[in-house]
Structure formats: C-alpha cells, structure tokens
Amino acid sequence: MPDRPDYAALTRGQIAVLDRINAGEAGLPVLQQIVRLAQETLGGRGAGFAEYSADHGRIIAATGACTAATGRRVDRADTRLRDGRTLLIPLDSLNDEFAKQVEGGDVHRMLGARCEVGETIVGSLHVYFGDRDDEPGPEHHAVLELLAGYVGRLYAARDGLPVHSGEQARRQEKRDLWVAVTSHELRTPVTVIKGYADTLSNHWDTLGDVGRHEAVRIINTRAGELARLVDRLLSAASEDGDVGASPAGPFDLAEALRAAVEELPADLRRRIVLDNLPGELPKAYGERDSIATILTELATNAEKHSPPGSMVELCAAADEETLRFRLSDRGVGIRPEHVEQAFERYWQAEGGDRRHHPGAGLGLYLVRRLVERQHGWVSLRPREGGGTTAEVRLPRA
C-alpha cells in the first residue's frame, strides 16, 4: 500500500462518478464504481460495501479479493463505527464468517467508513489490506470518508438501491398481487391432481397401461410443484423460522446436483447442460436435501426469462473455503440494479413468460433463505454476452 492515497486516480474516479450521476445513472452500477475507486485509490487488496437492513448487513458490491463475497450476509459493523466515521479493524477481532474467509486470502485488516443519510446509517464502505501493507494513515481515512459520502448521496436519491428504496404502499400492493397469484398457483396443481385422480378412479380399466402411467406421471409432477409452493409459502410466512430443515453434514455436491437435475420436469431437464461438473470435488457441508429445491428454483427462474429451447449451463468448482455451483442462461439478462431486489419477497421482474410461469415472487427468496441457513450465500449477476448467472456458495466440510 502506498504511503499516500493515489490522488490522481481519486480525481479521475470522482469525475467519472459525477459524470454518471449527472447523466441520470444511479443504483448498483455507480455504487460498484465507487467501491472499485476506493480500492484503487487506497491501494487495498479488495473493497466492498455492506448495505444494512434492521438486523444485519449484506455485501452488495465488491472488488478484488472480496468479489466472491457479493451477496454474502454479514454482521452490522456500525456498532464499531459509533465514535468516528472511519475505523481500522483487525479481521481476527471480528466474529464473522466473511472476515474469517477473507483472512484466509492474505487479507488481515479492514478500514471501514459508515455511509449515512441524515442520521440513518445505510451501510458501510470497507477497504481490505494485507499483513505486509503499511497501516493506513489519516489521509487514507479522509479519502474513504469522502467516498462514503458519495454512497450516502446515492441512497439519499432513493433510486435503484435495494433495501432503502421500497415504501409501505408499494409493499402492500406487492402483497395484494402475491395473494392473487398464489391463489392461482395453489388452485392449478390441485385441480390437475384431482382431475387425473378422478380419471384413474373412474376409468381405470379403459385407460390401459400407457394412459395410467401418463396420469400417474402428471400427478407426481404436479404434486412436486405443490410441495415446492408450500415450502415457499411457509418460508414467506416466517422471517425467522426454519423451513423444512434437514440435518446438516458433509455431502457430495456434484452427485447431489446430478440427482437434482434428474428430478426436474422433463422439458426443463432437457435444457440443462452439465458443463464442467467435476466427478471429484471436496465435500460440502450443509443440507443435501435442499439442493433439489435450490436447483429447481434457479433453473425455473432461468427458464422463465430465456427463449424457448435455449440451454442453461450448470457447473461446479471449489476453492480453499467454499464449494460453488453456477447456473448460466442466455435469456433477457438481469439489470444490475435488480440483482439484490430479485431476492426480496413478492418482487418480480418485468418480462418473462407469465402465462406459463406466473410466479408469486417467492422462489429466489426461498433460495436465499435455504442457502444462508447453511452459512452460504447466493448472488445473481448479468452474464457477459447476455443472460444471467446465478451462483451459490456453500462451506467446505
């Protein structure tokens, strides 16, 4: 780390940020540029911004050594930032899973600054330094405080940023829509199941083996849809309760993914390309039974926003701390300002085939809850060349 901040980079970066704001841009793309500028100007190994909700924070923008943590739930750091706007914290003093992870990547200290709108702390901006880096001086603190002020301005504009952009009336409108759509979703599989059950009961002898097998297959498929919908509803009904929790332990992630693909509806299963799914991976630690639900929700979301017949690629890999798998489609893509909103209850993006996939806005919300219950995290991002990539990370056993 240089003795002084790179003021030339800071000036260029400020001009670029202001140009984007003056051009009407806002939200996560501009926030990501500020985070990148903080790392570049201060010479850090990585940088990130944690947005705060009532009881926790979440990394919604990150660069360098922290990039993989995008989407990671973390503890709020504002209790440590009460006495000043910036604070240098040794990572080994934090009881936080993310801090332990980046420490393993030769990152040992964090310079943090709180981001405020009036008297409300909306998040904190952090730059991470290695053990061999010099300790940040007063000028480094001042620059980070300046950049944190830019983040506060973005939140004051209330445009395109996740947690603090909603209003009560808008939430009520979403709930009303959710009730209407969920009623439809519940009614559809129940009606189909009852219809085919009646057919089997009343016409068993005349259907023949082919007809009976087809009826049973449809009942099984619709029952699976109904079970997943019930999981969503239970998840949405309680912020804190464990939904369908199963015992956690070591498991083979690649094998669990292959089994989960086999459980997908036939039309969706044919679209999954097992691209770079290794036969040998370290064991993951978590709830193996949850992988089928997580994969189904992510694959259904990819199908909903992709052209008919287009492929969805599934791959997996491991690093020193986590195992990850990704689903990548070539659909309409996700706007950068929506990569966090997509995980909110009842939120639905524009577009997609709503005739065949009406959706109640609960699938991705359920995915995030299932993954975070296992001390992992999930994120969405636009895919280079078009489409969306969903990434799930779970701890290594």
UniProtKB/TrEMBL annotation:
<dbReference type="Pfam" id="PF00512">
    <property type="entry name" value="HisKA"/>
</dbReference>
<dbReference type="InterPro" id="IPR005467">
    <property type="entry name" value="His_kinase_dom"/>
</dbReference>
<keyword id="KW-0418">Kinase</keyword>
<keyword id="KW-0808">Transferase</keyword>
<dbReference type="Pfam" id="PF02518">
    <property type="entry name" value="HATPase_c"/>
</dbReference>
<dbReference type="InterPro" id="IPR029016">
    <property type="entry name" value="GAF-like_dom_sf"/>
</dbReference>
<dbReference type="InterPro" id="IPR004358">
    <property type="entry name" value="Sig_transdc_His_kin-like_C"/>
</dbReference>
<keyword id="KW-0597">Phosphoprotein</keyword>
<dbReference type="InterPro" id="IPR036890">
    <property type="entry name" value="HATPase_C_sf"/>
</dbReference>
<protein>
    <recommendedName>
        <fullName>histidine kinase</fullName>
        <ecNumber>2.7.13.3</ecNumber>
    </recommendedName>
</protein>
<dbReference type="InterPro" id="IPR003594">
    <property type="entry name" value="HATPase_dom"/>
</dbReference>
<feature type="domain" description="Histidine kinase">
    <location>
        <begin position="181"/>
        <end position="397"/>
    </location>
</feature>
<dbReference type="GO" id="GO:0016301">
    <property type="term" value="F:kinase activity"/>
</dbReference>
<dbReference type="InterPro" id="IPR003661">
    <property type="entry name" value="HisK_dim/P_dom"/>
</dbReference>
<keyword id="KW-0902">Two-component regulatory system</keyword>
<dbReference type="InterPro" id="IPR036097">
    <property type="entry name" value="HisK_dim/P_sf"/>
</dbReference>
